[in-house]
């Protein structure tokens, strides 16, 4: 793996040829990763699948690390927002359902990217940034619940989100158990109950 | 990676030469994994570090997968039990403290084994069995709490243990965040509060 970063692919011309090639290449990276995993990911296979000249792929993305870095950047560069269902438990359950669906799709890009993060420094960095951005976007779930009076204002949003979402990933990725269809709702309910009981209050007064 | 399983190393003579060699070799595997990770793990390096003839290592363990399979077997073959602190929250916090200490040791065999499980089928299988055994042993935490009257008898032990322990692994392994010294206690408290609020009751009557 090279330590020199690949030249950043130009990507500010939506609809242009550059942008079209990037879309084709990153779609091919997703498909190759999902089907073959990190070990099967090569620039030649990506170029062939994308129908893009291999010299273009080598010049713009340089190596597998460059492809992964750009894939994470493109994945995070969307307008995703958590669903607004009208209740804390509903919002957390919707988030867990989305996560479980992404992790159990066949093939699953999400699962392949997590696996790749144990193989490639670029993937580990890209995934860390992506999670960080996603958890930040999810904080609105907590602020909405505070506005509705479901939670006290001093709720630690990050710890509440961690409690609600971690069980599903732990079970699928680390324990490698089959998906439990009831877990998205169940983990959301447990986190919401703990939150109502003051488990995520941050001030010492509320933390007794 | 060979698909043929390695010949099982003979290991029923505690204190004998066979047992001593196994201990030396598995200690060397732990050290090599912790220092160099899966990519640096070779039978030659393990033999050299263990001070055991490489022909012996090749004959008994065959390949890296054989070493990992035996390491997981040896790791699970202990008398580990969760601490009995006298309360549900205390027991869960003690468990989380142990897990966080194991994951943040430098080098950490636990972290190296998790990373290896994304590289080797043998490691993935070994880790799955090890987790399964550990969670089964931890169910006593819940049955003690039921006996003390802290929890209703129909508590889903596995889901409660998952809720209590998942946040720590999620944060360290998947989100790759620095260890949060308050998280072991905090996640234990959140799970215990959710349990008190009926989040892990299994019968429909208690699940309203």
Overview of this structure, please?
- The structure is a homodimer of 208-residue chains.
- Helix content of chain A is 64%, strand content 0%.
- Chain A is an all-alpha fold and 208 residues long.
- Chain A has two domains: 17-76, Arc Repressor Mutant, subunit A (Orthogonal Bundle); 88-207, Tetracycline Repressor, domain 2.
- In chain A, helix 1 crosses helix 2 (43-50) and helix 2 crosses helix 3.
- Mean pLDDT of chain A is 91; it is low at 1-5.
- Chain A binds chain B through residues 114-115, 117-119, 124, 127-128, 131-132, 135, 159, 162-163, 165-167, 169-171, 173-176, 183, 186-187, 189-191, 193-194, 196-200, and chain B through 114-115, 117-119, 124, 127-128, 131-132, 135, 159, 162-163, 165-167, 169-171, 173-176, 183, 186-187, 189-191, 193-194, 196-200.
- Chains A, B: GO terms for molecular function: DNA-binding transcription factor activity; transcription cis-regulatory region binding.
* Quaternary assembly: homodimer
Strand/helix succession of chain A:
HHHHHHHHH
- Give the overall shape of chain A: elongated
CATH topology heading of the largest domain in chain A: Tetracycline Repressor, domain 2
The CATH architecture of the largest domain in chain A can be given as Orthogonal Bundle
Helical content class of chain A: 55-70%
Count of all domains of chain A: 2
Would you tell me the structural class of the helices and strands of chain A? mainly alpha
């Amino acid at each position: 793996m090279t330590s020199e970063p690949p030249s950043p692919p130009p990507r500010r011309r939506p609809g242009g040829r550059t942008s079209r090639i990037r879309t084709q290449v990153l779609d091919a990276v997703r498909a190759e990763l999902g089907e073959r995993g990190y070990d099967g990911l090569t620039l030649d296979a990506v170029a062939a699948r994308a129908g893009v000249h291999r010299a273009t792929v080598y010049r713009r993305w340089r190596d597998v690390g460059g492809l992964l870095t750009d894939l994470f950047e493109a994945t995070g560069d969307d307008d995703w927002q958590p669903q607004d269902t009208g209740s804390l438990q509903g919002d957390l359950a919707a988030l867990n359902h989305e996560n479980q669906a992404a992790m159990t799709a066949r093939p699953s890009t999400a699962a392949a990217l997590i696996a790749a993060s144990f193989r490639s420094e670029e993937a580990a960095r890209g995934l860390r940034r992506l999670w960080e951005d996603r958890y930040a976007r999810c904080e609105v779930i907590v602020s909405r619940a505070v506005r509705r009076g479901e939670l006290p204002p001093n709720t630690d949003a990050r710890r509440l989100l961690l409690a609600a979402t971690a069980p599903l990933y732990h079970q699928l990725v680390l324990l490698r158990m089959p998906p439990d269809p009831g877990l998205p709702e169940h983990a959301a309910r447990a986190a919401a109950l703990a939150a109502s009981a003051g488990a995520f209050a941050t001030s010492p007064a509320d933390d007794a």
